[in-house]
Input
Amino acid sequence: MNTEKQFEELCVNTIRTLAIDAVEKAESGHPGMPMGAAPMAHVLWSKIMRYNPANPGWKNRDRFVLSAGHGCMLQYAMLHLTGYDLTLDDIKSFRQLGSKTPGHPEYGLTPGIEVTTGPLGQGFANGVGMAIGQRFLAAKYNKPGFTVFDYNIYGIVSDGDLMEGISAESASFAGHLKLGNIIYLYDSNQISIEGSTGITFTDDTGKRFDAYGWHVQTVSDGNDTEAIEIAIVAAKDVTDKPSLIIVKTHIAYGSPNKQDKESSHGSPLGKEEVKLTKEFYGWDPEKQFYIPEEVSKFYREAISRGVAEENKWNDIYEKYSTKYKEFSREYENAAKGTIDPDWDKILPVFTVEDKAIETRKASGKVINVLAEHLPNLIGGSADLAPSNDTMIKGSPSYSAMDYAGRNFHFGVREHSMAAELNGISLTGGITAFGGTFLIFSDYMKPAIRLAAIMKLRPIYVFTHDSIGLGEDGTTHQPVEQLCMLRAIPNMTVIRPADANETVFAWKEALEHRTGPVAIILTRQKVPVTDRTKYATADNLKYGAYILSESKDEAELILIATGSEVQLAIDTKEMLSSEYPNIRIVSMPSWELFEKQSDEYKEKVLPSKIKKRIAIEAASPMGWHKYAGDEGIIIGMETFGESAKAEDLEKHFGFTAQNVAAKAKEMMTGK
Output
């Protein structure tokens, strides 16, 4: 190569042609974005970011988030070129069954992928969560002379990301928190699936982000690698504002007939256009997946560079661990998810003398006990902390003035809160929770689903779980939300019956390792079940258990969750003299129950007992599996109403009198 500029062009075109060839071979994908954004990727991976391909999980690595996940061949190309465990054969298997190069980046599948972004806007908010997590670790563990956590969050975002409302929520929050460890490059190619973004998206993005409190720069030529590097370096110097660099690019740059056209967004270029494009780059059009030797050698220097960076950090951390043993031990235990084996002995115990209590308030008491023993348990609410009972008492709020604060004020931003919880959870060494009303889980579904896909461990505190919330009425009374959450694979939903089940719901959530957990809690007071008369609450771990056995062999089973368990108890007492052989099953979690052995499930719900009544103040969808073909489901077939809770319970049939009447009909056949 004659000049450095020519060599850079060769490197950038290698990225482009790898993306083009992979999409063409797959006959599916988005070639245009990688072709336009390749210069940004080149600068980030070769000149800016600290990372170690030999150890993708190095604790102090910079994080990269491809929010424009449809352009994932850009990221796969960089991971392969810089020496991650991603072979050329993996690149050639793009979008094929079982490959390490799926159609969008997937965390846990491909080395070097930090987060499953998927739907547009999610990655933007995930990165904000990662930045929050970094600031928390730095504030807590960095000490004079020992900067153990100082990494940055880099990302490439698209026009589509910035159209999605979640990015607005999260940008506002990041600006408020002055998260100067975020540097996003905006791939402003002004093309989406329907054509020019001008048909729908004419914001002055720079002014918008300036108003959010971001540091904004513009690079007018997306092929100018020097200008891109200068802008990133300038952004790194701004430590009290997140940065957005608007990079004006051309989608499908170099394609004679598809550059700046929507046809390159979601479809291969086509063989003839590939040939013409490669000729434009000065590439041999007959070569596929071609990586010039000098380019490979250049990018693979990232391996030795990364090893050296990590070794340098390891030396610092070793000295830190000697001087600050308590802090290093605390962090390492949190990073491993290690909990003192006797930790559950600190959990509160509620008795009948405590009288009735809302399970949301019981949850708040549990959170505060746990917070004393789990220093990296942090969380908050979407402007509902007093209602959700999520405040950690005695701890300051997380803010630009105190990044070690443990109470988050996410604001009225449920969608971004959920995605930020994913980013915080991906940080490592932090257990994060977020609260809102159950009805507003609707705003959080995309991020909850992604948490389940990634098997992350955020804990959701969903309160106001039924018509029992009363006068707020139809819009606030959840009906379909429980079955929607239960429908998400790898999601665990727990609806505790009383204060003590709430304690063990938290225990289960903290010990759970393979996906998010939602704890569903009441607004109304619920009696504390007398555990001297009924089965102990630690049985919650089984998902369903025999709370109260019949006098002789059971003839009827009442199955209930949450506040309706007390309704089942009242019904059994009402019928006890006439029908003594009634079993009550508390079923706080379908998912936990399904993990039990067939023998256990048969013991709790014997197949020979056909007379069953399932009670839950929510949609009956899904309950047929447990109620059986001959059973009755007392649920919500309509939306709620605005009235006092007791009036609503009577109106919709959630009374012992109604359940008892149904039971008598079932027992007598009349």
User: Anything to note?
Assistant: Residues 140 and 534 are 44 Å apart (CA to CA). The radius of gyration is 28 Å. The mean pLDDT is 97.
